[in-house]
Amino acid sequence: MSNATILSGTDLSKSYGDLEVVKNVSLSIGAGEFVCLVGKSGCGKTTLLSLLSGLEKPTSGKVMLDGKEITDASEDELALFRRENVGFIFQSFNLIPTLSAWENVALPLFPIKMAGEERQRRAMELLDKMELGHRTEHLPSALSGGEKQRVAIARALINKPKVLFADEPTGNLDSSTGDAIMEILNRLHADEGVAILMVTHEVELAKTAERLVRMHDGEVIS
Amino acid sequence: MNWHYLVNELYYQRRRTVASIIGLSIGIALLIILNSLSLAYRQAAHAPLREIGADVTVQRSGDVPENLAGVVFPCSAVTIRDEEVKKIESYPGVRGTGKALLLWVFDPNRAWIVLGIEEKNSIGPAVLRSSVTEGRFLEDGKTEALVEAAYARQFNIKTGDSISLANRQFPVVGLIDASRAAKIAIANVYVPLAVAQDLAASSSQVQSVSPFARQDVNLLFIKADQERITEMASSIKTLMGKGAAVATPDSFLKLLGSLFALSDKFTFAASLVAIIVAVLIAFKTMAGNIAERAREIGVLKAVGWTNRNVVMQLLAESVIQCFIAGIVGLVIAIIASYGLSFMKVSIPIPWEMSPTPHFLPGGGDQIFKILRLPVYVPWKLALFGIALSIIIGGMTGALLGRHVSHIKPSEVLRHE
Prior knowledge:
The structure holds 2 protein chains of 2 kinds. By secondary structure, chain A is α/β, with parallel strands linked by helices. Chain A has helices at about 45-55, 75-85, 100-105, 115-130, 145-155, 175-190, 205; strands at about 5-15, 20-30, 35-40, 60-65, 70, 85-90, 165, 195-200, 210-215, 220. In chain A, the strands form 2 sheets. A 6-stranded mixed β-sheet of chain A has the order 6-7-8-3-9-10. The model of chain A has no long low-confidence stretch (mean pLDDT about 90). By secondary structure, chain B is an alpha+beta fold. In chain B, strands 1, 2, 3, 4, 5, 6, 7, 8, 9, 10 and 11 form an 11-stranded mixed β-sheet that branches. In chain B, strand 7 (about 160-165) and strand 8 form a beta hairpin. Classes of the chains: A alpha/beta, B alpha+beta. The interface of A and B includes residues 75 and 90 of A.
């Protein structure tokens, strides 16, 4: 399923003071590829994901996404870049508690000049796909863990991203709900060809991915 | 900036919103109330002079006559020469003057306080025209008198009677209830100014204490530009020298004795404290808000909001919250002002301004002008309060916007 490289990190290192968290890592992801980053807690998986997604700047090395180098971009340029190219799914959902489900989905569109009806239509459409058409007006506090994560996935998809970054997306869910979320991710990958980079420490979950990348102590070991 | 997000944030975070609005609105309300009170005392201080159509009164104190007989000047009101009046009339800020002549007339069987007044003027005791309760007001060139109503009742004087003052006969053409109007320059009998000047000029008692020509007076009332009153009062004192007594709204303000009345500096300092408290409350709330919402801000940035997008959203929240606080503060201030407007103040009128011989009944009694404190919120002050609250909101939002740029989404979203 792997095509041309959509995302690549070359010789990426990240240090916090004297602590080197990511050590000279190079990693590429093809368009539509589903890659899983596994490793023990604290091995640098999330930091590598942050570097590749433009959430954080590397101490050295470079990141290219869809042919554009993002390493030297300003913070605001990175924000625009994220808005247009990537989607995020977090372990603890990170929904805005004061916004309804559809508003949370539409959150990335708020800064864009767009008719409110269009924004809502797109959000509703995605919620329908996530089988949450009946929960669109509910606040996150009224949703179950699985529903929250499905809202978060819909939010990640609203801008039609080239790459989806998922950081322990099932970490806060029971196993059956976690399986359901994985099924959605697999479907997105298979049906819509979205490249996915998922961080997890559960090897069983990682087996569903096309490629497994193992990390240990800040380095890619296989 | 997204309105829906803003409204939801303020609505669903009610406790935070209400706490912030209450804190700031109290600051704004305090600011408005303090300034309204200060303004009310200032306006109250204008009342004794305003009711006689003037902003300033001028007198000159002198010696007590050796013998209290016939026509004399009270020691608090001796001659103001005509050339002095003309000089004062030429001072910048003087919009008009009114003249009067206050005399004590000691006849063998009665003492009179007589005020010579102009027949036509909107400044000075001529405004008593509206206080005539019976008969008519004085007419040009006629030798006639008006008698104060209470005095007339006491001595059974009626319109149409004739009274004798310093051996001259005066037909009583009307009664006047001066107590309803002025507390300054009140008298028992009112006669035309020219007649009073004639009485004074021909009195040896007057001339022995304070030489007096027929055009001179001993009370001068000035209508003036408010902003030039202080400068004018100082010039008049310099012109008239020792003994000059110039009453202004400021001198009545001092007699009121309130902190608000005594000092602009107090009002300014208290207002400043109220503003600082309001700013600190807004700042603390907003800082707490940002700290509390660091994760949310991290999410916004992660999904593609720029720093500017986030700052504008928080700035709008802050401005709207402070604007609401401003409105609430204004409403509190208006209600409080309404309550305070029932408060009464007693403005003491110095004896010198309405001198009555001490040996006459009530002669030494302190006279007060009692009025309800005119507390209200002027629209300019209301607008200032609202504008200030918006500025505080904008300032706070903008200042704290810097902190937003320091929030790294990777850091706040890292630990689950």
